[in-house]
Specification:
Layout lengths: L1 E9 L2 E7 L4 E5 L6 H10 L16 E9 L3 H9 L8 E9 L4 E5 L2 E3 L1 H11 E4 L10 H12 L2 H47 L6 H13 L1 H15 L9 H14 L5 H30 L4 H20 L5 H67 L6 E12 L2 E10 L6 E2 H4 L2 H19 L3 E5 L7 H15 L3 E5 L3 H4 L4 E9 L3 E7 L2 H13 L5 H12 L1
Parallel strand pairs: 3-13, 3-14, 8-12, 12-13
Antiparallel strand pairs: 1-2, 1-4, 4-5, 5-6, 6-7, 9-10, 10-11, 14-15
Helix pairs in contact: 2-3, 4-11, 5-11, 6-10, 7-9, 8-9, 11-13, 13-14, 16-17
Amino acid sequence: MLKSLHISHYILIDSLDVEFPEGLIIITGQTGAGKSILLGALSLLTGAKADAAVISEGADSCVVEAEFTTSDPRVRSILDDNEVEWADGSLLVRRVVHRSGRSRSFVNDCPVQVGVLSALAARLVDIHSQHQSLVLGDPAFRLSVLDLYAGNGTLLQQCREAWRESQQLRLQIRELTDRLERMAAERDYNEARFRRLDEAKLRDGELEELEAEQTRLANAEEIKESLSGASELLSPSSGETPGVIATLKEASRLLSRTGTYLTESRDLAERLDASRIELDDIFSELERLDEGVEVSPQRLEAVEDRMSLLYDLLKQYNRNSVAELIAVRDDLSSLLFDSDALEEKKSQLESGLATVTKRLQGLYDELHRRRLAAAPGLAAKIEKELRYLELDRAVFQLALEPAKGGEDGADTVRFLFSATGKAPVDVARGASGGELSRIMLCLKATMAAFTQMPTMIFDEIDSGVSGSVADKMGSMICEMGREMQVFAITHLPQVAAKGQAHFLVSKEDADRTYSHIKKLSPEERVLEIARMLSGSVISDEAVANARRLLTD
């Protein structure tokens, strides 16, 4: 229920703090006093669009804050999902609107998205505005009334989950189909690109090896000539002229011979031997290198052809290395393979969609069966209440018709009404303003019994009626107040006399006009109802009549 409301700097409300009791709460006031302003402020807490125009003149922001109490586990689930403290069922909901037009929302002092306010409001308060009878023409509203009466909540939840699952599967299948079509259009091109790279037998580092080999082959004769010349100097093949190695060997022998007489000679001989051994090793390496250098125009041509192929591929694919070409080849391979994998995935999704569609159709059929069974009972209940509200020959019927399948099933409901007992027609065409008000009250009373809504607010739902009808509507609203908190904003004294608590909205003129709300004492309540009966001049008869209404 709504325990308290605080409003500051909202249109004509400068500052307002009010606490509300349980049961039926009556709110009255002269036209233009600010009753609709009060509802407008409260609507901000239900997630309504914020507008800087609601901020009072001279203020930078407006604040609307309300305290609710609830034991609804669905409310706790919403709070848990948004990491808001439960606080034993006490909810402090606040909305702050700034001059920029932006607003901030809080629940138990925790910042939340405005959508969270909407979700909470659906479980905390139902506001029936003055012109909400127009929703009688809304297919979703009509269906929701029937489903509440039929107790279809669990079945509807299953239906909505299955429908969302089917929509998600359809989306995935559509995306896969588009992707496969694009891949099919490019398949021949990609296959040709992959084939050329695959046939190239690419190997990381190959180009660097080929470039080194090409350099050797292109200069093979010069290399061999240099290697042979160096070898010849170290050890001539003719034997006529001693080479460096033979000369060092002879010099070492001579020095070794004098080593007996001159120690330094022996040391020099050893150094020469070491140099000779190193030169022998160099000579062997030169011969190995010489033998390894191949003078082969055929191999040079083959290397250059291979290099040319790799250079062409690098240019064609705008890459800088063979490793990058290998990556392109692997990507193309995956792309071509993915086509088969995606076809398989699409087939699995289509199979899943067929299963979900079959389950969804079963839920549609069960919903239709339950709605069909419940429709006569709901119609009879509404018809009985309409006759209590002095529509003695009223006929109210529900016509269930097939519709395109959606998250709420594959049915649509029409409300048919006749005040004369003759052939009923669509309620939007066959009911007057007063009749619409009575129909709406009957529907709201029925819905309230099934929604377990803790608070309901009626804004002049009794418009278009008077006399004994207004009295009976007040009794019906009063009966609802025994089970829940009900606010009734009214201009009818017959309704105003029914509530346990009575609040008056009024304007006060000072430098500026402000709206106020106050709880009336028993005597003040008598005078307010007398004013509603007689107008600005309150007669003794009106006071007596007001006292009689309050005691009936």
